Amino acid sequence: MAEKTIIPFGPQHPVLPEPLHLDLVMEDETVVEAIPSIGFIHRGLERLAESQDFQQMGYVAERICGICSCIHGQGYSQGIEALLDMEVPARAQFLRLVWGEESRIQSHLLWLGLAADAFGFESLFMHTWKLRERLLDWVERTTGGRVIFGANKIGGVRRDVADGLLNEMVADLKAMEAEFAGLERTFLNDATVRSRMEGVGVLPKALAMASGAVGPTLRASGVASDTRTLGYSAYDQVQWQIITEGAGDCFARIKVRCRETHQSFDMIYQAVAKMPAGPVENKPKGFPKGEFMARLEQPRGEVIYYLKGNGTKHLERFRVRTPTFANIPALVSMLKGARLADVGNILLTIDPCISCTER
Amino acid sequence: MRESQDYAEIGADGLVAEAARRLEGNWRLVVITALQNPEGVEISYVFEKAQQLESLRLSLPLDARTLPSITGSYLAAFIYENELQDLFGVKVEGLALDFKGNFYMKAKETPFIKTVASQQPMAPSPEATHG
To answer: Whole-model pTM?
Structure first.
C-alpha cells in the first residue's frame, strides 16, 4: 500500500474565485479522501433579520450572492408573501420567470466559461463570457442592474417592462441562442474537453440522493428533481421538462447545463408571448406571522428560504440553505478515487458559489 | 402557491432510527435548521420525496443541548450538524466528520444563541481541521 500524504487544496486556488479548502488524502496520485473546510468568510447575514425590518431584509437577501442575486430576492419575497397571505399579480409572476431564467442563463454561461478556463481552453472561455455580457446588457436594460438585478420586491417586481422592449429582447435572445449553439457544439464535441470530463468525478444516482445533492449536480446523476415543478412564478404556465443525464460524471454536468440554457431561452420566449397585462405589484399589509419554507430552483439547484415571523416588523428567524452548501457532501463523494489532476475540474462541476454558502 | 409544511414532533432518542427509516424510503435530506426560542433550541429536520416535504421537529433546553448524529444514515447531515455545533452550541454525538466547533471561523462561541452564549461553550479543538 502506498504511503498516504495530505495535500492542501485552497482556500486560495486558481480555480476558486472564493475561499474553500480541501484536505486531499492521497495515495500516490489518487484521492482516497477529501475533507472540506468552509467558513473562512461566513457573514452571519441570517441574524441581520433581528435588527433590520422585513422590508429591508429583501435588499440583504439580494446581496447574498452576485450571481444568483435575482432568485435570492425572489425566494425571500415569496416567503414573506406566503406569511402575509398575499397574492402577486400575474404579470409580475411572468416577469419573475423571465428574469429568473435570464439569471440561470448568465450563471450557466459564467460557469461554462470558468470550466473552459480551468481546463485550459481560453478562447472558449472568452467567447462564452462575451455572450454572457450581451445577455447582461438585456438584464440591465430591463431591470437597471447587471449584478444585483434589484428586480423583486415583496408583492411583485420593482418595475414593469414595455411589451415592445420585451419583444425586441426576445429577437436578440434568439440570435444569442443560435450563437450559444455554436459554443455548445465545442463543449460537447471537442476531443480535449471530452478527454478531461468523460468518466471523471462520477456520482452514481443512489449516492447523489444519499448525499443530498441538488440542481444540475443531482440531475446529471439521473434524478429528475427540480423545484420549478412546484409551479411558482409562472412555471406552471409554460411548457418545459426536467433535464437529466445518466452518467453522473463531469461531462454529464456540462450537458445538463447546456441543455438547461436552451430550455431557459425557450421559457423566456413562451413567457413573453403569454405575458398578461396588468399591475406588477400589490402592496404588502401587516407584519409577517407564522413560518414558511420557500423552495426555488437557483442555477446551482434548490435554495431554501425558511422564514419565521412573530407579527412584528422583525423576523424571528431568517434561514437560507443554498445549493452549494447542499452539494458539498456530494463533492466529497465524487472526489474519492479521482486523480489529483482532475480535482480542480471536479470541484468546478458542482459550480461552487462560496458567497452563497457563506451567507 | 403553498405546499404542505406540517411538522411532526420527535424525541432525540428516536431520531437515529427515524433517519434510517427515511433513507430506506428514499427520502432526501433537504435541510436541518434551528432557532432559539424561550424554551431553548428548536431543531427541524426536513425531508423530501417526490416534491413533498415532511419535517420532524424537536426541542432542546439550553442547558442540555445534546443530540445524536444522523450521519450514520445521511452522511450529508455533517454540514448541518457541524453548523448546529458552531452557531447554536448543540453538541452532536457520533458525528462522522466532526469539526468540533470550528466549521466556521467566527468571533463568538455560539453566535446564534443570544442570551446564554457562555452556558455551554464549545472549546476549539486542536484536532479540528481548518486549512
So the answer is: 0.91
Contact A21 B112 (CB under 8 A): no
The minimal CB distance from A329 to the residues B35, B46, B76 is found for B76
The DSSP bridge partners found for residue B29 are B47
Give the contacts of A318 (CB within 8 A, at least 6 positions apart): A46, A47, A48, A49, A57, A306, A307
CA distance A165 to chain B (A): 29
How many residues are given for chain B? 131
B63 touches chain A (CB under 8 A): no
Cell of A37: 473546510
Q: Does B76 touch chain A (CB under 8 A)?
A: yes
Sheet holding A21-27, edge to edge: A4-9, A21-27, A30-37
Tell me if chain A has a CB within 8 Å of the CB of B115: no
Put simply, the answer to whether A232 touches B30 (Cβ < 8 Å) is: no
Q: What is the pLDDT of residues A201-215, one digit of tens each?
A: 999 999 998 889 999
From A236, which residue of chain B is nearest by alpha-carbon distance? Answer: B1
Residue A328, burial from CB neighbour count under 10 angstroms (0-12, 13-18, 19+): buried
Q: Which residue has the cell 448546529?
A: B84
B111–A contact, CB cutoff 8 A: yes
Q: Where are the domains of chain B?
A: 7-93
How far apart are alpha carbons B82 and A259 in whole angstroms? 36
**Structural domains in chain A?**
43-325 (1.10.645.10)
Spatial contact of A226 and A219, defined as CB atoms under 8 Å apart? yes
Q: Tell me the ipTM for this assembly.
A: 0.86
pLDDT digits (tens, 9 = 90+) for B54-87: 999 999 998 889 999 999 999 899 999 999 999 9
According to DSSP, the residues that pair with B32 across neighbouring strands are B45
How far apart CA A46 and CA A247 sit, in angstroms, is: 37
* Residue carrying the nine cell digits 414595455: A162
Q: Using alpha carbons only, give the angle A223, A226, A230 rounded to the nearest 5 degrees.
A: 135
How far apart (Å, rounded) are the C-alpha atoms in residues B11 and A113? 48
Contact B51 A209 (CB under 8 A): no
Per CB-CB distance under 8 Å, the chain A contacts of B28 are 209, 212, 225
Closest residue of B to A327, CA-based?
A: B76
Q: Which of A75, A43, A70, A45 is nearest to A60 (CA)?
A: A45
Contacts of A293 in chain B (CB under 8 A): 5, 46, 53
- Write down the CATH number for the domain with range B7-93: 3.30.460.80
